[in-house]
Write a structure and sequence with these properties.
The chain is of the alpha+beta class and about 200 residues long. The protein has helices spanning about 5-10, 15-20, 35-40, 90-115, 155, 165-195; strands spanning about 55-60, 60-65, 75-80, 120, 135-140. The radius of gyration is 17 Å and the shape is globular. This is HIT-like protein.
């Protein structure tokens, strides 16, 4: 019996690589707070890719955009710009950048949707529920009233009822998340200058 490979479970084209190519970073390296803010686009043409991509962050090593089949309002994906199959394939500099952006993005989502509880989930491989073969983290807000579901794994692993993202609502939601990211970056910049 031969071993199966990742290619046996995944499509040939990686949708996240397509997003990375379509929305390049405006800078190649971050060296100050203005560079950080330049990674948060003012306006995004969500229809440059199909399905639409509601981008909130386009940094040199990291991208963030709304999940096209969100579990809850504000469900955000955070991914490496370069194609990496599993977390073990992410080099240190990219891992550091993801580690920098995750708390900022989680706070921005939390502020936007008004939910203080959330999961950050990252799956590796098809048996671990990784659907897209590209490292990504889910930031999933957990509102007080959760959808009625039949599969109780929703509570732990982020699975369960999912609906298609409405493009008009998503455009407004992404714009507000981007505003909240900029607000958090300003807050952090002020706090660093006061040290």
């Amino acid at each position: 019996m031969s071993a199966t490979t990742a290619e046996d479970h995944y499509p040939v084209d990686c949708p996240f690589c397509g997003i990375a190519q379509t929305y390049p970073s405006p800078i190649s390296q971050i060296s100050n707070s203005d560079d950080l803010k330049s990674c948060v686009p003012d306006v995004v043409d969500a229809e440059k890719v199909s399905p639409s991509c509601h981008l909130v962050l386009s940094a040199p090593e990291v991208l963030a955009f709304l999940d096209i089949m969100p579990m809850t309002m504000g469900h955000l994906l955070v991914t490496t710009r370069s194609h990496r199959l599993k977390i073990e394939h992410v080099p240190g500099n990219e891992a550091s950048d993801i580690g920098f952006w995750l708390p900022i993005l989680a706070k921005a989502v939390s502020q936007t949707v008004g939910v203080t509880d959330y999961n950050i989930v990252q799956n590796n491989g098809p048996r671990a529920a990784q659907v897209v073969p590209h490292v990504h983290f889910h930031i999933i807000p957990r509102p007080e009233s959760v959808p009625t579901i039949q599969n109780k794994s929703w509570t732990m692993f982020g699975r369960g009822k999912r609906d298609d993202l409405d493009d008009d609502e998503a455009a407004n939601l992404a714009a507000e998340i981007r505003r909240q990211i900029r607000k958090e970056l300003d807050h952090r910049s002020r706090n660093q200058s006061n040290l």
